[in-house]
Amino acid sequence: ADGEREVRVAGLVKMVESMRAAQAATMVSVLEDDLAVDVLERMNRGKAGKMLSQMDPRKAASLAEQLTVPVLWEDS
């Protein structure tokens, strides 16, 4: 299941990076935060910044803040 999600998220990142910043911002802003942050982490930084600048400032700030939180991995 994790491998399948990886493939889907990678595809979503490519799709979002190919959009104009305003279009990408509209789409990513309605994704669940966990998925939006995952997409932002994988995006080209310049494109991610342009996209965030097109979002509602509160949503952009929330996502940017979540990008700074370290990921805690659980041992399986």
Account of the protein in words:
With about 80 residues, the protein is mainly alpha-helical. The chain has five helices and no strands. The chain has helices at about 1-20, 20-30, 35-40, 45-55, 55-65. Helix 2 (about 20-30) crosses helix 4 (about 45-55) and helix 3 (about 35-40) crosses helix 5 (about 55-65). The radius of gyration is 12 Å and the shape is globular. It starts with a helix and ends in a 9-residue tail after the last helix. The mean pLDDT is about 90.
SSE layout and pairing:
Elements: H1 2-18, H2 21-28, H3 33-42, H4 45-53, H5 57-67
Helix pairs in contact: 1-3, 2-4, 3-5
Task: Give a quick precis of the structure.
The chain has five helices and no strands. It is an all-alpha fold and 76 residues long.
Q: Segments where pLDDT lies below 50 for 5+ residues? A: none
| Shape estimate | globular
Tally of helical runs: 5
Following the backbone from N to C, one meets helices and strands in this order, namely: HHHHH
Helix content: over 70%
Percent of residues in β-strands = under 5%
Q: Write down how many β-strands occur, each being a DSSP E stretch of 2 or more residues.
A: 0
Please state the CA-atom Rg, rounded to the nearest Å.
Answer: 12 Å
Mean pLDDT: 91
